[in-house]
Each structure stands twice: as structure tokens, then as C-alpha cells.
Amino acid sequence: MDNRIRELRNEKGLRQEDLAAMINVSQQTISRLENGENALTSDILINLSKVFHVSADYILKLSDSRLTQEWRVEIDRNMERNTEICRVYDRLNRTNQELVYRLMGQLEERQRERG
């Protein structure tokens, strides 16, 4: 069965052993899945979807869209929030925009220092 497991594993820089441990299967199982020797069980497919944050359809090559519905909703929420932040920023006068910009820089620097 053709799938994208090897591609996704390599993108994450994982060895077969690493991925196997993450989803509680043997390295041999991962090898067989990647080579199309074993069919994907629903449990393994769900776990792989969670590990790689992609849809099951993407893993199975039924779709070229990586995003799960859950991630799409999250991205939409973030886009709406970011758009509203930009609208508020645009309504501020130049002095307050500069203050916000400097504050964001300071917060980012502090966050980087704290790890």
C-alpha cells in the first residue's frame, strides 16, 4: 500500500526506531509499512496522523492537503485574531504604534532570553 510515512519521517529527521517508539510498534513494522508490505491499521494511521500533524488522507495519498480539520480551525482562528490585532494597531496614532512596536520587540527579546 502506497503511503507517505517515509517522507514524513524523514522530514522530521526521525529514524524508524524513533517513530516506532513514538507510536508503540516495532521498527520492523515501520519498515514494512514504508515499503508497502503491511497494511496500515486504523490505530497506527491515527497515531501517525497525530505524530505528523497531518490528515490520514494525506498519509494514504488520497489528498495533497496536509492539514487536518482540527489544524484548519486553529489556523483560521489565528488568522482572525491576527487580522483584528492589525486593525487595532492601524487605528492607533503614530506615537502609540511606535510604543506597541517597541514593546513587542522587548517582549520578544525577554522571551528569547528565558528560553
Account of the 3D structure:
The chain has helices at residues 5-11, 16-23, 27-34, 42-52, 56-59, 69-91, 94-114. It has 115 residues and is an all-alpha fold. Helix 2 (16-23) packs across helix 3. The model has no long low-confidence stretch (mean pLDDT 92).
Contiguous helical run count: 7
Instruction: State the separation between the terminal residues, measured CA to CA.
Output: 43 Å
Given helix and strand content, the structural type is: mainly alpha
Question: What form results from the Cα inertia axes?
Answer: elongated
Name the average pLDDT: 92
Q: Are there runs of 5+ residues with pLDDT below 50, and where?
A: none
List how many beta strands DSSP finds. Answer: 0
Largest sheet: none
List the secondary-structure elements in sequence, H or E: HHHHHHH
What share of the residues does DSSP label as strand, in percent? under 5%
Which structural traits does this protein have?
single chain; 115 residues; mainly alpha; 7 helices; 71% helix; elongated
Question: In brief, what are we looking at here?
Answer:
This protein has helices spanning 5-11, 16-23, 27-34, 42-52, 56-59, 69-91, 94-114.
Summarize the helices and strands and which ones pair or pack.
Blueprint: H1 5-11, H2 16-23, H3 27-34, H4 42-52, H5 56-59, H6 69-91, H7 94-114
Helix pairs in contact: 2-3
